[in-house]
């Protein structure tokens, strides 16, 4: 048996077989395994689509593949030694057999492009804008699963990903929480120039950070900053279902103002059977001034739950928090299959440009 994943420039058509389900699909020349699976309507997990977050990690059981686009920086030496591959970047160099988590729940919801109108724009926090988008006249309502994200399609062909902060409802509203990043082209434009009534073009739904209902385990949610958006959507989904599973929500930010929906999240604890909300501030002065817990959000979660073997953990937010969670939660006994996440990396084109300049932007 040959198992190898190295740098190659071109690839002819090969077949991919998924070990668990036995499903099989062809990969066209130059396509990644993830792109081919999506074309065939097979949902494999992913988030950044740039090789940096690790959420598309799978095990290569047989065959060869390569990384002609971005290097697989989310794989450390140990993962490579165990034949881990990143499906968002891996291009087969032979027929391959892989072991990957399939997320069949998202397969029923077709991805599409549509024009949306900005129905409402408001300030959630000093650097966070809330947006309500509705399908433009003539467009059908969008379907999505709570926790998924959309790509805003820019005029130059680039895309900017943002999580949808609510579940689909009869009003058709799509809620976004957009943080203005320093030097960021699109988020600066949203903060300064976007007006109610303007039209945006989006592709959605995307992503596999969705509720997993095939478990009875208690759930831990960890959000950093606007990582609260998809967490909000998933928690609200479980509350609407009337789940009896215990839920703990940890939301970390620098200052109290950055926890922009703290009252709403606090309100969940009154409405829900067994939900506990834990706001955490990383700035000691801000924590002291507001009387909130001080520290990094992943450290607070681990202080409370040193053994994670019996939990399902959902996390979303900045890459540094996601990296810390991936590593430290595994050390606390969390099986990889019980961890779901979206890493709020920059857009794939920006990461590709950065990775083209240097070998790795993450420590993973
Ligand atoms: C799945 C997913 C979901 C997300 N959801 C959300 C969300 O709900 N809310 C949210 O606020 N954010 C979210 N994000 C993050 C969001 O997509 C980014 O903040 C956004 O794409 C930034 O776009 P921009 O055009 O403003 O910045 P860009 O213009 O893309 O620049 C981003 C940063 O990179 C720097 N940069 C650009 N090019 C280079 C280069 N070549 N070398 C070095 N640095 C460079 C810029 O100076 C700037 O600091 C999500 C990301 C992902 C992947
Ligand atoms: S590393 Fe592949 S989706 Fe992030």
Which keywords apply here?
364 residues, alpha/beta, Ubiquitin-like (UB roll), Rossmann fold, 9 helices, disordered C terminus, binds flavin-adenine dinucleotide, binds FE2/S2 (inorganic) cluster
Task: Please render the helix and strand layout as text.
Elements: E1 3-6, E2 14-18, E3 24-27, H1 33-39, E4 57-66, H2 77-81, E5 84-86, E6 91-92, E7 96-99, E8 112-125, E9 128-135, E10 149-153, E11 159-163, E12 174-179, H3 185-192, E13 199-206, E14 219-224, H4 228-241, E15 247-253, H5 262-271, E16 275-281, H6 284-290, E17 293-294, H7 297-304, E18 312-317, H8 319-331, E19 339-343, H9 348-357
> What is the domain total for the residues?
3
CATH H level, superfamily name of the largest domain: Nucleotide-binding domain of ferredoxin-NADP reductase (FNR) module
Largest sheet data: 7 strands, mixed
Number of helices: 9
CATH architecture of the largest domain: 3-Layer(aba) Sandwich
Distance N terminus to C terminus? 28 Å
CA-based shape: globular
- The name CATH uses for the topology of the largest domain is Rossmann fold
Q: Roughly what percent helix?
A: 10-25%
Structural class: alpha/beta
Q: SSE order in H/E notation?
A: EEEHEHEEEEEEEEHEEHEHEHEHEHEH
Low-confidence stretches: 359-364
Oligomerization? single chain
Radius of gyration equals 20 Å
How many E strands? 19
Mean pLDDT: 93
Q: Which CATH class of the largest domain is shown?
A: Alpha Beta
């Amino acid at each position: 048996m040959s198992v190898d994943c190295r740098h190659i420039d071109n690839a002819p058509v090969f077949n991919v077989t998924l070990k668990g389900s036995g499903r099989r699909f062809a990969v066209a020349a130059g396509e990644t395994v993830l792109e081919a699976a999506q074309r065939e309507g097979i949902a494999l997990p992913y988030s950044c689509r740039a090789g940096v977050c690790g959420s598309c990690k799978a095990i290569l059981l047989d065959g060869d593949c390569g990384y002609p686009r971005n290097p697989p920086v989310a794989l450390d030496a140990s993962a490579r030694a165990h034949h881990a591959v990143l499906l968002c970047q891996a291009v087969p160099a032979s027929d391959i057999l892989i072991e990957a988590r399939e997320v069949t729940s998202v397969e029923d919801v077709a991805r599409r492009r549509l024009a949306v109108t900005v129905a409402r724009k408001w300030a959630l926090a000093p650097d966070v804008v809330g947006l309500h988008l509705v399908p433009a006249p003539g467009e059908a309502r969008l379907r999505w699963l709570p926790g998924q994200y959309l790509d805003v399609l820019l005029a130059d062909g680039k895309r900017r990903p943002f999580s949808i902060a609510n579940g689909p409802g009869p009003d058709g509203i799509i809620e976004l929480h957009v943080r203005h990043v320093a030097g960021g082209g699109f988020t600066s434009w949203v903060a300064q120039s976007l007006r109610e009534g303007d039209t945006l073009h989006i592709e959605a739904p995307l992503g596999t950070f969705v509720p997993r209902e095939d478990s009875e385990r208690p759930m831990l949610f960890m959000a950093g900053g606007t990582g609260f958006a998809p967490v909000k959507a998933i928690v609200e989904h479980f509350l609407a279902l009337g789940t009896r599973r215990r839920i703990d929500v940890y939301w970390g930010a620098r200052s109290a103002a950055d926890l922009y929906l703290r009252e709403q999240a606090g309100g969940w604890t009154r409405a829900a059977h067994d939900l506990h909300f834990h706001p955490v501030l990383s700035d000691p002065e801000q924590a002291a001034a507001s009387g909130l817990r001080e520290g990094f959000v992943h450290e607070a979660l681990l202080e409370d739950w040193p053994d994670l073997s019996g939990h399902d953990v959902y996390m979303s937010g900045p890459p540094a928090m996601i990296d810390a969670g991936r590593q430290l939660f595994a050390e606390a006994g969390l099986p990889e299959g019980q961890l779901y996440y979206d890493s709020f990396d920059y857009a794939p084109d920006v990461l590709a440009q950065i990775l083209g300049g240097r070998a790795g932007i993450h420590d993973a």
